[in-house]
Amino acid sequence: TARNIVRIAPLRWRLRDAVDTATAQAAQLDLLGNSVLGLLRAGQAALLAGEDVPADLRTAVGQLRAAVGGLAKHGIDNGADAATVEPVRRLAQRPPPAGATYAPLASSLVRTCARDVLRIHDLNEGA
Q1: What is the model's pLDDT at position 59?
Q2: Which of 9, 16, 17, 125 sits most deeply, having the most CB atoms within 10 A of its CB?
Q3: Over the chain (127 residues), what is each successive 10-residue block's mean pLDDT?
Q4: Buried b (16+ CB within 10 A) or exposed e, 36-72
Q5: Which DSSP string do the residues of the chain spell out, in sequence order?
Q6: What is the pLDDT of residue 118?
Q7: Does residue 75 contact residue 22 with C-beta atoms inside 8 Å?
Q8: What is the model's pLDDT at position 124?
Q9: The whole model's pTM is what?
């Protein structure tokens, strides 16, 4: 609805960029939600299979939780400082662990979630 209004109503034309940015962020947020669901499913499968989750993977999931929680609490505009974003950048480049069946999958999903968070942040930076 907002997209249609800013395209049609002359008094709202100046808001086009803001609406386009918000629409792109919402789409990326949807992708993040799907990535988190995948991570939860991989974690559940690992636990049901009796796999031990490596400590560094548990730490990475905790860092991802803290970063997403900080962004949710403070908003993308106010809380996206270096202390929040830099740990997510490191997670996005984290190499996959070797060994276990589910750990590489979960690690890959942590990277995917981190990249989704960074895309949301980068969309805001361009606004």
Answers
A1: 85
A2: 16
A3: 86 89 87 88 84 81 82 64 73 69 82 86 65
A4: bebbeebbeebeeeebebbeebeebbebbeebbebbe
A5: -HHHHHHH-GGGGGGHHHHHHHHHHHHHHHHHHHHHHHHHHHHHHHHHTTPPPPHHHHHHHHHHHHHHHHHHHHHHHHS-SHHHHHHHHHHHTPPPPPSSSSHHHHHHHHHHHHHHHHHHHHHHHT-
A6: 85
A7: no
A8: 66
A9: 0.69
Residue with tokens 């070797």: 98
Tokens representing 65? Answer: 């939780």
Structure tokens at 95: 């190499």
Rounded distance between C-alpha atoms, residue 101 and residue 14, angstroms: 52
